[in-house]
Amino acid sequence: MLIHELAFYVHITAGCAGLILFWVPMLSRKGSPQHKQIGRWFARIMYTVAASGLIMASLDLAWPLVMHPASTTLTDAQAQIRIAEVRYTAGFLWSLSILVLVTTRHGWLTILQREDRAPLRRPLHVALCSLLMAAGLLMLYLGLRGYDLLLLAFGALEVWVAGGCLHYAFKATLQHPREWWTEHLGALTASGIAAYTAFFVFGGARLLQAWIPDSFAGLSILLWVGPGLVGGIAIGRMTAHYRRRFAQPSQNQTA
Length: 255
Known about the structure:
By secondary structure, the protein is an all-alpha fold. It has one domain. 80% of the residues lie in helices and 0% in strands. It contains 9 helices and no strands. Helix 5 (76-113) packs antiparallel against helix 8 (179-211), helix 6 (123-146) packs antiparallel against helix 7 (149-170) and helix 8 runs antiparallel to helix 9. The protein is elongated and about 70 Å long.
């Protein structure tokens, strides 16, 4: 189907660009013109990644055999197996796309609005966060039912991220100096985590398997979960660093 094919190429192109651009604002001086400009481009690319991923995943969920026709005639049993496989992949991609969309949007709203959290409480943003929460809970349920570590890990991550976004939006007061800054960094780092996870799950695994075929078999789950673990540690360390820095008014507040 043409729409699916176009969404696929847009998704791959934007995803590759996002994987590269992610590191520029991460490593550049925070608040610098380069950080701001490249950060804007990263956000736009992540919106494109999320939109194209949702289009592909939705089409796959609705018409799995039309989007991914078999090269030979399938029996009813084989068709059901193929449908389940396509929908498994599509469901995971759909939840990752929602994660990218929510974290990117949350990260930019926090930096644009700063102490004003009213935009985070508007129906659209609350609905998107709630949708991410629902997707995470579904991933947890499916992961528990199928003893699937990948779904369990990312179901937990999605529930944690959605809960954190909603908590930040609705809590009575901000508890730390310039808390909007650390919320911005954490959300956009989570967006990068989702992008790298999608790369390893849907594309990078095949590439690495071609390079290290004899030793790759036991590494796939580590590559899939690794970005989340590393990113979670990075978010925690950055948040602690900037909380300490902003608690000291004598230091440069734009670092």
